[in-house]
Write a structure and sequence with these properties.
Blueprint (H helix, E strand, L loop, with lengths): L1 H15 L39 E2 L2 E10 L2 E9 L6 E7 L9 E9 L10 H4 L1 E8 H4 L4 E5 L4 E5 L1
Length: 157
């Protein structure tokens, strides 16, 4: 009796694994499934391509450092926004990360806070961001520049 139960279970498992084109598949015995519309969270017009970014340049770039990393360099910058709450900081490369006249340029961009915040002290407002650049991407560039709204800093590698 127990062998029949295990045999029936094993047979059901084997038959349920058959491909959709085989008539022995028990999921196809009662007709094909109807096509259902998939529900997605994607907007009807698609996702934005990033051109309409809500981020803007940081008010002031205060520090810039280039650190050697495995297979390239780490560009680290510190910026000072006008008040607390700025977030989503990034170094965005200009010119498709190609050096122009030996200079690779990055824009230091941040997103503003969604509500009004205090100004606070400069030490509390500092934002640090880093970007990895491989030796291949760096190519013939000898200087790296990070641009903010009011100033820019340049350093040699």
């Amino acid at each position: 009796m127990i062998f029949r139960i295990f045999g029936a279970i094993a047979l059901g498992v084997v038959l349920s694994g058959c491909s959709g084109g085989v008539s022995l598949n028990p999921f196809n015995w009662f007709g094909p499934k109807t096509d259902e519309e998939l529900v997605t969270l994607e907007p009807r017009d698609g996702f934005p391509d990033g051109q309409d970014s809500y981020r803007g340049p940081i008010q002031q770039v205060t520090q810039l450092a280039i650190e050697r990393a495995s297979g390239g360099y780490l560009v680290r910058a510190v910026g000072l926004p006008p008040r607390l709450g700025y977030w989503e900081a990034e170094l965005v490369p200009q010119n498709d990360e190609e050096p122009v006249n030996g200079v690779m340029t990055y824009d230091f961009v941040v997103a503003p806070p969604p509500w009004a915040t205090r100004q606070s002290r400069p030490q509390a407002r500092q934002i640090t961001v880093a970007h990895y650049v491989s030796d291949v991407q760096l190519g013939s560039a000898s200087r790296i520049r990070v641009v903010g709204a009011n100033n820019s800093l340049t350093t040699r590698r």
